[in-house]
Amino acid sequence: MAPGIAYLLAAAFATGAVHPPCPRSTLPAYAHNDYENARPLADALRLGFSGVEADVFLVDGVLRVGHDRQQAQRGKTLETLYLIPLREIISRCGRLTPDGRGFLLAVEIKETSQATFDALVSLLARYKDLFAPVSSSRGPLELVLVGWHPPFSALRRTDFAPFRVQHRISGRSAVPVVEEEVRLLSVDYGKTVGRRWKDAADRRHWIAALRATKRANPDRLLRVHNVPADGTIYGALLDAGVDLIGTKDLARTRQLLRGERQ
After folding, report:
1. Which CATH architecture has domain 23-258?
2. Are 31 and 105 in contact (CB under 8 A)?
3. Among 221, 200, 195, 199, which residue's Cα sits nearest to residue 210?
4. Are strands 51-59 and 62-65 parallel, antiparallel or unpaired?
5. Band (23; pLDDT cuts 50, 70, 90)
6. Quick one: three-class SS letters along 131-160?
7. Buried b vs exposed e over 158-176: b needs ≥16 C-beta within 10 Å?
8. 0.85 exceeded by the pTM?
């Protein structure tokens, strides 16, 4: 491409005169603590990830992202960082995933706070077009609460009820069928599987438990996060039925999952 044409295209993208290609989420992975990346959401979509996760605090009546309250004080808002750009992209491109499953937006309320939950309900009500009601087919986005949340009875009383939650797996026993509100079966690799991964017998027990858990809950998402960027570990987890691997190293994880060389 001639330098002049490349310059004009770059300028057009920068001013919004030309839209970037529509993203397609094809990787069995999501961006863990995505807001800490240099280009939150944008890189996850560009690289083909199937979801993002953001921690939130209520700061002066506004939901802001950050790993702790001090970081959230100066952090961007959940709305500007995720909901506004996702609405624009979805309105232009339609669904982001090729299999009809919603793009995962995992939100962690970092404090026990009814006010924070209520603020989240109010915010999401302005984005109903992105989330399908529980009683209908899935929308282009799928929201899962992965931190504190009120009791299930309170979740059911929200006006449009897009809320699903996670069930944490802390032991290597298979998990039976979970409540209907549970969408995500969640394993922290570093605190569970990873502690004994090099022990072949213990690793086999974990793999068997993951496989049995997925078999008992085929319509739930099974995720493992805090996983080292290792192709052998990724392969074993995916073979066991894991749907999503949580990562902070997006580029390296993409290389490993796509079998690309550095």
Report:
1. Alpha-Beta Barrel (3.20)
2. no
3. 221
4. antiparallel
5. very high
6. CCCCCCCCCCEEEEECCCCCCHHHHHCCCC
7. beebbbbbbbebeebebbe
8. yes
**Per-residue confidence at 261, pLDDT binned at 50, 70, 90?**
low
pLDDT value of position 161: 62
Classify 242 as helix, strand or coil: coil
CA–CA distance, 47 with 163 (Å, rounded to integer): 27
Sign of CA dihedral 8, 9, 11, 16: positive
- What CA–CA distance (Å, rounded) separates 55 from 67? 6
Q: With CA atoms as reference, report the closest residue to 90 among 127, 35, 37, 47.
A: 127
Q: Which residues touch 14 (CB under 8 Å, ≥6 apart)? A: none
Domain boundaries, the chain: 23-258
Whether the CB-CB separation of 107 and 146 falls below 8 Å is answered with yes
Give the whole-angstrom CA distance, residue 34 versus residue 36.
5
Residue 241 confidence (pLDDT): 97
